[in-house]
Design a protein that fits this description.
- With 444 residues, the chain is of the alpha/beta class.
- The chain has three domains: 3-129, 3-Layer(aba) Sandwich (Rossmann fold); 132-372, Alpha-Beta Horseshoe (pyruvate-formate lyase- activating enzyme), CATH 3.80.30; 374-443, OB fold (Dihydrolipoamide Acetyltransferase, E2P) (Beta Barrel), CATH 2.40.50.140.
- 32% of the residues lie in helices and 22% in strands.
- It has 14 helices and 20 strands.
- Strands 2-1-3-4-5 form a five-stranded parallel sheet, sandwiched between helices. The chain has a five-stranded mixed β-barrel with strand order 14-15-16-20-19.
- The structure holds iron/sulfur cluster.
- Iron/sulfur cluster is lined by residues 150, 152-154, 157, 159-160, 194-195, 233.
Length: 444
């Protein structure tokens, strides 16, 4: 049997796209290989948001040459941002790559593979890439793209150039896909998009739906026990979405609000269309209406012209917003983005200094915030049982461990252990709260 291997870089949309590529290849009778070297078809789903991911592809040539010497029939395919970027000269820069395809062209992959491999292959027929049901990492947690592209043109970002303008799937399309997964055992649904709260898909009556409407429709699906979404844009956050958090039983009390900077001057240069003050007002609205909600964010340090005062404003905003988690990026200019023309004037060492200060602040706040869970009961979806520890996420997005073994007992990994089963949502009493983990025991 022919084998495939997919390597994915970048955001959750890319992870979701890779799940569709895997599903397509399995419909062609390929099976997943554990290592790249064993595969007949290697697919790289690339990201251009950060230079680091592109460098990993550019640095793969030697490895590919060795693998192709050992398996001359190996086919290397590249998709994702580096292809969508257009104008990237693969033939000259990466001649080992046999196939490139825009993710929207996924239905054409079987034809391209058959031609390159010179063999007959099973040809699944799909007209649209979003109609391919993804092969998910487990059956109880699924990600469903509700839209592709972005209209926002934040000055540091190239997504509108790689994924194009916003295109929302219809409500019926999304609901049908979720129902198919629920039949197979899905409990947790992550709604995905570059800017989910500007979702404007078509309803059954031909009118446009809002994101809040979609959340209500997903809530109605019997079998869905948890609803999550990422990422919304703070400028598009509406009261009806906040209200949905307050009223929908299955919508998890956690939200990712990417602020990017706490300086209104930097936010203006980033084209974000909100200020430090309006962002903090939004955070307060969430805390007031949904007590206990956890909020995570993205912050870029060292953006063009970011002064020490701008950075202090970011730290001040961070303290006031009391985020639970931040994904920190050090600014790197991306060709084609609007900021590429600005001066990248913060030295690398200074970006690193700001990164470490912000990182230390998030650890301090996260540890403090986690303490509120001690002796409280939370609900955990078990997604791993390994070395005698069951683990998973709580409804607030906290990573939780449930130790199941005493030190004298042998370790175990598998699907069911000591009354706990993968995919089960259990009530846990928290006994210990560390910076990044809560530990507790199952209670009834
Ligand atoms: S909202 Fe801004 S950061 Fe997010 S994908 Fe669109 S342009 Fe990029």
């Amino acid at each position: 049997m022919r084998k495939y291997h997919i390597t994915t870089y970048g955001c959750q949309m890319n992870v979701s796209d890779s799940e569709r590529i895997a599903s397509m290849l399995e419909a062609m009778n390929f099976t997943a290989s554990k290592t790249e070297a064993e595969a007949d078809v290697l697919i790289y789903n690339t990201c251009s948001v950060r230079q680091k991911s592109e460098n990993r592809i550019l640095g793969s040539r030697e490895k590919w040459q060795v693998m192709k010497q050992n398996n001359p029939n190996m086919v290397i395919g590249v998709t994702g941002c580096m292809v969508a970027h257009k104008g990237y000269d693969f033939q000259r820069k990466l001649p080992e790559v046999d196939i490139t395809f825009d993710i929207q062209e996924l239905p054409q992959l079987p034809g391209k593979l058959a031609k390159t491999m010179g063999v007959d292959l099973v040809m699944p027929e799909y007209s649209e890439y979003l109609h391919i049901l993804p092969k998910t990492k487990n059956k109880f947690q699924i990600s469903v793209p509700i839209m592709t592209g972005c209209n926002n043109f934040c000055s540091f970002c190239i997504v509108p150039f790689t994924r194009g303008r916003e295109k929302s799937r219809t409500v019926a399309d999304i609901i049908t896909e979720i129902k198919k997964f629920v039949k197979k055992g899905a409990k947790e649904v992550m709604l995905l998009g570059q800017n989910v709260n500007s979702y404007r898909g078509m309803k059954d009556d031909g009118k446009q739906a809002t994101f809040a409407y979609l959340l209500h429709k997903v809530e109605e699906i019997s079998g869905v026990e948890r609803i999550l979404y990422t990422s919304p844009h703070p400028k598009d956050m509406t009261d009806d979405v906040i209200e949905a958090h307050a009223t929908l039983k299955n919508l998890c009390p956690t939200v990712h609000l990417p602020v990017q900077s706490g300086s209104s001057a930097v936010l203006r240069r980033m084209n974000r269309f909100y200020t430090k003050e309006s962002f903090l007002d939004l955070v307060q609205k969430f805390y007031d209406r949904v007590p206990g909600i956890t909020i995570s964010t993205d912050i870029i340090v060292g953006f063009c012209g970011e002064t020490e005062q701008d950075f202090q404003d970011t730290l001040d905003l961070y303290r006031k917003a009391q985020f639970d988690l931040v994904y920190i990026g050090m600014y790197s200019p991306r060709p084609h983005s609007l900021a590429y023309k600005m001066k990248d004037d913060i030295p690398r060492k200074e970006k690193e200094r700001r990164f470490h200060i912000l990182h230390a602040l998030q650890e301090e706040i996260a540890e403090e915030k986690n303490k509120i869970y001690i002796n409280k009961k939370i609900h955990v979806l078990i997604d791993k049982i390994k070395n005698g520890v069951a683990s998973g996420r709580s409804e607030h997005g906290k990573y939780v461990e449930i130790p199941l073994l005493r030190s004298s007992e042998t370790s175990f990994e598998g699907r069911v252990f000591k009354g706990l089963e993968l995919g089960e949502i259990v009530t846990v009493k928290v006994n210990e709260a560390l910076t990044w983990v809560l530990r507790g025991e199952k209670v009834s």
